[in-house]
User: Fold these one by one.
Assistant:
Number 1:
Amino acid sequence: MSIVPSVDNRISTGNLLLAGSMLVAVAVAWGNLSGRAADMASDITAVTAQSAANEARIRALETTAARQDERMVLILDSLRKIESRLERGPNP
């Protein structure tokens, strides 16, 4: 005797409740993911703006540092000239 498994192909209330709850779960998950995607897009926009602001500040600091370096070179050159005059003595 062999027992052949059979599948009950009737739709019951439990099946309808399960299908409904699955649809609700999928809808909630979809809404959650859509909200997260929108949040991530706004975060990316904020990070991009902050990056541009940081780059502008860095460029300003680099420009200031270059000017200071140039001033220091001029001061050093002036000090060398003064030092050479002092080494030569009172007569030029």
Note: The first helix runs from residue 13 to 88.
Number 2:
Amino acid sequence: MKASFAMLAIAFLLLGCAQDEQSSIPLFTVTKTPFSIEVAGFGEIQASQSQKIMTPGRRPMTISWLKDENSIVQKGDIIARFDAQQILKDSREEELELMLLQQDIVKSNAQQNQAKQDIDSDQSFVKYEFDFTDRFAIDDLRIYSQLEIIDTLANRDFLEAKDDFLTWKETSIVEQHNNEMAVLDIRKTGVETKFNQHQQALSSLEVISPFSGLLVYEKDRRGEKPAIGQTVFPGRPIAQIPNLDDMQAALFVQANDAIDLAQGQAVEIRLDAFPDTLFNGEVVNVSGFPRSIERGNPVTYFEIVVSLLEQDKRMMQPGRKLSAKIEVKSPSDKLVVPLQALYFDDGSTYVYLKNGNRFTKRLVSSGRKNLYVVEITEGLTDGDVIALSLPEPTQVQGS
């Protein structure tokens, strides 16, 4: 009797341990639940149409003054000024270089003229020697000896060779001078081009608004707006005057969260300045690839353009920050399970289905998912109970 009681006590103890072990596994009951896919984003309001104002000149310049952003400007108003000190310094250096090149040109011409005069003098002397030799050259053996006649002929050959050399030297000096002048002309053209660019930059130190309207400064690819002391490059958009009658939203969605984004999807928008007001919109463009929006931050984002179905000039001012939800898939009843309940092995997807006091490995097919749950298309039915964490091997049938 005591032995039977002891065995019964042990059985109850083991059963209690098994129930305690099973109760430690969190469970989830599979039911049809409204399933939707929403993607969160952030961004700001901007004008869908605007008149851009470009940085003038043909060289980088440093900003020394800017008109206040979001102020009303009239056509012809000055909206930015650039620092002239560096441009003046560079301009004077190029001007000095031009003066030195001009001196080199004058020096080269003087050297050529002096060399030509020396050659002309030598050629005149050779001509005089020719005349003298021809005048007194006698080849009569009755008057001069044969050696004297040979010396006279050799002297004439020497004069002819010297005359040919002087002619070649004159041609060589002209060619050398022409080459030297060509190099100096090239250098002079380059310096004059730089000097003219500096003069043009000095005449473009002020940016004039070509239109009337609200002034909004343009961000670069890293999200930075022009600032005093910043160096900007020619041709970069420095500001814009937006059309306030047609505003849109520019959103950024983290690349890891961008699930099936496409044109035409509905968007809910809340301005940070007016969080209680909901605006509706529609995706009109999705960037083809993600990019970084912060310097030194490796996280990448897709850029989304959203057209706004309601316009409110009082609230929707360019640059106002906002948060948004993009409805990738509208709600519909689906069998869904938490992402943590799925396990993967050799290309198969499975869950642990509760079967009495133990669990069975059940193969399933999954469909679309959002950030929290995934749709189950095959393998589970309404009312099934699955484990949300990995059971112990002793709790799994067949292990």
Note: The two ends are 36 Å apart (CA to CA).
Number 3:
Amino acid sequence: MRTVAARNAARTGISKLLRASSVLLVAIAILLVQNSQATEVGGVKLDDKVSVAGQELVLNGAGLRTRLMFKVYVIGLYLPVKTDSASTALAGNPPRRVQIVTLRELSGEQLADSLVESLQKNLSKPELEALGSRIESFRKTMLAVGKAPEKTVIRLDYLPERGTRLTVAETQRGEDIPGAEFYQALLRIWLGAQPAQEDLRAALLGKPQ
């Protein structure tokens, strides 16, 4: 028969095991919550972290694009490290992501026209000429999208080894467009000297509204 001491030791061991298990379960729960954290803008949730080209990116900022009082889309900017500087966000060759979630149906023509108009405002004539063929290729890809219904997820990813990749509703559209300078030009649509929307520029740079 087991002695009282042996029984007490067994109970103590079980109690320690249960406490250790509880601590482990709490740690797992906290980790799961942290991994599922998201930022909500305009009723749209954006993950606080994503992976692009094998590198973890953080949500630098997010905001709401409006036009003539209409809500057009929610947009988030993902960078390797948070910054409130547009020049820092634009510089270099790291992976990056712009994620757009439409809040109304948009046509490929609307997307393409807005793209070209914003690029013309934020690029010099020499820059536009240097990027001309790539801009035209991207414009044609946007036109081919046809329609982007409400809640369509559009991603503009920059992959250092390949260039700019357009994904619409989880499907890649067109070919990757090479060159960091092309992606930087796209970012200037929202972060340039004449951004699509001033308060949106501030929001993407994580500045107080």
Note: Residues 26 and 32 are 10 Å apart (CA to CA).
